[in-house]
């Protein structure tokens, strides 16, 4: 026990070496990261604003979308700003506590997002397959319980993994071949035989996530079977065009995460690891506003009302010119 405490005490920081050393490539990556982050931030903040201010966007679906947008803002903000700052300042270091916090928060928000996506698929199942009971089933109390369970499950998930990861001894060198602290990269730095507990946690987590994914598939099978019974071809196309992108995003989020956490080859930086990490960390928060909200007619109508109101106010109350100074000739 004393040896383990000594080892952790000596460890002050890690070096994040996931991006290429070439200055041109690094500039391209930083620009790409910044644009993705900006798009995700603006899209999700817009969803939070619209669902909070517009009275027509107060149904259970928009309540879940608002929480998804909040999670996405936090989720992408845990990773991308630190990576951009490190590249701009030519610093690759992250403190021991900073690394532990990044792992906890990242897994916390990833787990909460996945749980909320499962909840949202159930919400769509009830809305399409049991429309007469929708208001009774998805009442205010049920909505809050589901959202609380999603956030809580992410917190538990993050706590388990950060405890499992940092219960090991790190033998160095303390170089993480990634642009952020993640569990598989850190486990390659562990002393031999020290990482079995966290590997067991990872396998158990991926198994549980896969089981939840089967429930999601079951919900969508019921949804698709109900949609196929819609007589109008336009109605079927509209439902399919909404549900299929939802399913695609969840599938991308789950399987890129499984490949990231159960894959091998984290002892050196590679283009494949970088690509899979970008898919897992940046693409879902950027696509979710577009797929879940901005294609929605009610959301577009609410956005149009805000833009028209601002345009009306601008023309109704033009800027008053400043009166000339009496002392000037």
Q: What is the helix tally? A: 12
Task: Tell me the overall shape.
Answer: globular
Backbone structural class: mainly alpha
The end-to-end distance, rounded to whole angstroms, is: 85 Å
β-strand percent reads under 5%
Radius of gyration, in angstroms, nearest whole number: 24 Å
Placed side by side, the strands forming the largest sheet appear as 2-1-3
Low-confidence stretches: 1-9
Biggest sheet details: 3 strands, mixed
Helix content: over 70%
* Mean pLDDT figure: 81
Secondary-structure element sequence? HEHHEHHHEHHHHHH
The total of beta strands comes to 3
Task: Give a structural overview.
Helix 3 runs antiparallel to helix 4. With 329 residues, this protein is mainly alpha-helical.
Summarize, please:
The chain is mainly alpha-helical. The protein has 12 helices and 3 strands, in the order H-E-H-H-E-H-H-H-E-H-H-H-H-H-H.
SSE topology sketch:
Elements: H1 2-10, E1 13-16, H2 23-53, H3 60-88, E2 93-95, H4 96-129, H5 134-137, H6 140-165, E3 175-176, H7 183-187, H8 196-228, H9 233-262, H10 271-281, H11 283-294, H12 297-316
Parallel strand pairs: 1-3
Antiparallel strand pairs: 1-2
Helix pairs in contact: 2-3, 2-11, 3-4, 3-11, 4-6, 4-8, 6-8, 8-9, 9-10, 9-11
């Amino acid at each position: 026990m004393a040896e383990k405490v000594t080892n952790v005490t000596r460890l002050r920081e890690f070096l994040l070496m996931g991006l290429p050393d070439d200055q041109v490539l690094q500039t391209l990556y930083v620009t790409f990261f910044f644009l993705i982050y900006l798009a995700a931030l603006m899209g999700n903040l817009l969803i939070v604003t619209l669902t909070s201010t517009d009275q027509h966007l107060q149904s259970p679906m928009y309540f879940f979308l608002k929480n998804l947008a909040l999670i996405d803002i936090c989720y992408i903000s845990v990773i991308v700003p630190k990576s951009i700052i490190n590249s701009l300042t030519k610093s690759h270091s992250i403190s021991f506590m900073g690394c532990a916090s990044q792992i906890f928060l990242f897994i916390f928000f990833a787990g909460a997002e996945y749980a909320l996506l499962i909840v949202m698929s159930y919400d769509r199942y009830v809305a399409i397959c049991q429309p007469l009971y929708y208001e009774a089933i998805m009442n205010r109390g049920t909505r809050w319980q589901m959202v609380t369970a999603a956030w809580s499950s992410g917190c538990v998930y993050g706590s388990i993994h950060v405890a499992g990861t940092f219960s090991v001894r790190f033998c160095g060198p303390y170089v993480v071949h990634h642009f952020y602290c993640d569990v598989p990269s850190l486990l390659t730095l562990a002393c031999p035989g020290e990482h079995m507990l966290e590997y067991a946690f990872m396998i158990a987590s991926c198994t549980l996530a896969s089981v939840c994914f089967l429930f999601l598939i079951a919900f969508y099978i019921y949804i698709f079977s109900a949609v196929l019974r819609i007589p109008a071809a336009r109605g079927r196309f509209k439902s399919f065009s909404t549900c299929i992108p939802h399913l695609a995003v969840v599938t991308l989020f789950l399987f890129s995460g499984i490949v990231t956490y159960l894959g091998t080859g984290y002892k050196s930086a590679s283009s494949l690891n970088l690509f899979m990490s970008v898919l897992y960390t940046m693409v879902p928060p950027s696509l979710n506003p577009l797929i879940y909200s901005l294609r929605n007619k009610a959301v577009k109508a609410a956005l149009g009302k805000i833009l028209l109101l601002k345009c009306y106010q601008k023309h109704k109350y033009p800027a008053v010119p400043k009166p000339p100074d009496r002392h000037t000739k």
